[in-house]
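Quarterly update from the structural biology core.
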Amino acid sequence: MIAKANSATLSGIEALPIVVEVDLQPITDRMFVLVGLPDQAVAESRERVRSAIKNSGLDFPRKTVMCNLAPGDIRKQGPWLDLPIACAILAANESIPIESLHETMILGELGLDGILRPIDGAVSVALMALEKGFKRLILPKVNALEAAVAVGVDVYGVTNLIEAVELLNGSTLFDPVKFDDSPDARLPDYQIDFADVKGQKHAIRALEIAAAGGHNVLMVGPPGSGKTMLARRMPTILPLLTLEESIAVTRIHSSTGQKASKEGLVWERPFRSPHHSASHAAIVGGGKNPKPGEISMAHFGCLFMDEMPEFDRTVLEALRQPLEDGVVTVARVQNTVTFPAECILIGAMNPCPCGFRGLPEQKCVSSPSSCIRYAGKISGPLMDRIDIHIQVPRLKTDDLMDKAPGEPSSAIRDRVIKARELQSQRLGGARINAKMSPKEIREMISLSPESDQFMRQVSAKLNISGRVFDRILRVGRTIADLAQCPEVQKNHLAEAVQYRDVSIS
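Predicted structure, tokenized:
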């Protein structure tokens, strides 16, 4: 008698269906054979499953166990096939009815004592189960809240093998987990606020524009000027995640095991700040079995690159395509996967290698040639993709001593939301100005004769590229949206131009 249990494995952030087939054969050597292209973690399931069944007080069959993971041409990854393998063995041994495995998907990593440990990618698995028509999903209890987003599938969270067996044997002591879609559940818990920032009105204004239109930002200033402090507060002025955005963010974080033990969906805008020594694969994504990188982990949030010129040149150049397209494609011989990467890039750098150029109180010790090399580490094509360039000077004593709080993030966020509502009405869906195509720019940004003449003068004087020209228009459109102005006027374009400080690039 062959027992079959349904499960899944991950390819990138996508869940692929797997069928666990178990056949008990009357051979006296009592082997446990596992086939179907398992990786090392799956191959080790044999010992975990055997011990978990015995230590749970259940009977492990005194026969040769033939276990096949179908389809055989897909490499199975991760230890979360432990529970479906155990359930299939117990069904073949008549400890649970085979019929209970029908239309049921099962996942979970077993400890030697039968305790279930959390799995990666629960949201992706639940959505795949819903798409494939499964009626029930059994997985570790800690993952049940995030999986419950797949409304239409009964999600059951169990803590050990015994509970899973009881559930499959028809126990009525278990209730499916309900998805919590209340407004309180969606509120992010930010511990920082722009009200804490002293001075830097120009930088805060630039970040407000960046948040409203989804524009990338480069901040240049000496050490201690507050670049990191400003960047870390950027998510607090972005609109709250929608349900669809939260699911997308949770899928990425869950598939990499970086949900920080949080149950349910991720409702905070991501903020990722990798060290400048991070590798190409760590930033963009990759590996033997491709995983999302930092730019994908920042999806619908912010990627902050402090000391940006110190990153490897190949890493910086690899950002060009994701910043333009909003996706990362990682190609390998065995597999090609695509990860979403729609985020706001915030870069920070010093004005020179020593960081003190332009400070009257400290002498710059960097040579002119080293300053040129330092600035040149960020290539022109990458600089073109950064819409807003701003100087962040050190604060003066009066600003530091000012005890009055700054404008709170909630007030800035309200203006950002109103600006994005205008963009949604104009572009459709949840699209923003930074993603406008050249065709949409021509059709939706009409310039008055005065504005047209102004842009001609700017283009001739600054000798800007076509890409930069379009980005100035996009930023100008965002500034107009913040002002609730239907037309892009000359003053909006003039403010947009000042954020293309050629002395930075």
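Residues 2-168 form a domain with the Ribosomal Protein S5; domain 2 fold (CATH 3.30.230.10).
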